[in-house]
Amino acid sequence: MKAARWYAARDIRVEDVPEPQTGPGEVKIKVAWTGICGSDLHEYLAGPIFVPVGQDHPLSHDQAPITMGHEFCGTVTELGEGVSNVAVGDRVAIEPIFACGECAACREGKYNLCEKLGFVGLSGGHGGFAAYAVVPSYMVHKMAEGLSMEQGALVEPAAVALHAVRLSKIKAGDTAAVFGAGPIGLLVVEALRVAGAAQIHVVEPSEIRRQKALDLGATSAIDPMANDAAAAIRERTGGVHVSFEVTGVPQVLPQCIDATRHEGQVLIVSIWEREASFQPNTVVLKERELKGTIAYRNVYPAVMELMAQGYFSAEKLVTKRIALDDIVTEGFEALVAEKSHVKILVQAPE
Questions:
Q1: Sign of the CA dihedral 346, 15, 333, 60?
Q2: Which CATH fold would you assign to the domain 2-142+313-347?
Q3: If residue 279 lies in a helix (H) or strand (E), which one and from where to where?
Q4: Which end of the chain is more exposed for a tag (fewer CB within 10 A), N or C?
Q5: pTM recorded for the entire structure
Q6: How does the average pLDDT of the chain come out, rounded?
Q7: Greatest CA separation found in the chain?
């Protein structure tokens, strides 16, 4: 079967690989759609970040080259021995976290903080940029009949956004800022609407993405190339209660801090390619809080319930659909060259 495999930065190859076989406790899936994630783009441009190179990942037992793709959904075609939570023919969304189940975080139920954390399609395993994938049964979530397969491919990134907002101190009626209106940033805007934020101010250089943020319910959308974004937000709000950093751009972190009020909170959602610096006094003198967030835990059912209510809509967020053969030129390179794209979905080959 065809699969898109990561070999090195700027070296992703679509090639023929053996179709994966189902083992005990595993589920085989005919992949439908897989989203290209910002984390995938980081691996393409500056990896390895999560991809294991030269040594097997402790949970996937894989190393590069690996089949990419972790935002995916499909139909169950085969069950391994002992699997009872899904049936052949079920449409499922994949929660692609590898967790050991034994470390302190896992024992507390916080499996996204596992000491050996990994992701199918980033840390090895059978990723979604392929015709078929095989994953442990605990990773599959049955989709409601009303959700399209395209919606299924958005469950994973929407879970990132919902978890970040849940982890924040945001309360109904509070004000928020979102720095970055890429896919996750826009999903954070929607999650903030769910949480009852009274004002949501978005900072984004792309005019198309700014308009998309307004379409999704943002109060304002600020161009940081033409304005001092933090000053503009303070002028409108006196400083927001919570700001979300969703760019991974080092210069943006200080702006996120400056946009918050006294005792405000900064949620760092991005995965970073390099270090970022800030003046600690900007945190100390206002008793602000910086908090990181990674992935999600125990939110897939809630995400799909919200999708059924109209949130996290694929119609509003998907800007391009491509074939697997075109994943480099029409996918990764398009995301590098055209900052107007929001979410690109890759259709699995037959």
A1: positive
A2: Quinone Oxidoreductase; Chain A, domain 1 (3.90.180)
A3: none
A4: C
A5: 0.96
A6: 96
A7: 61
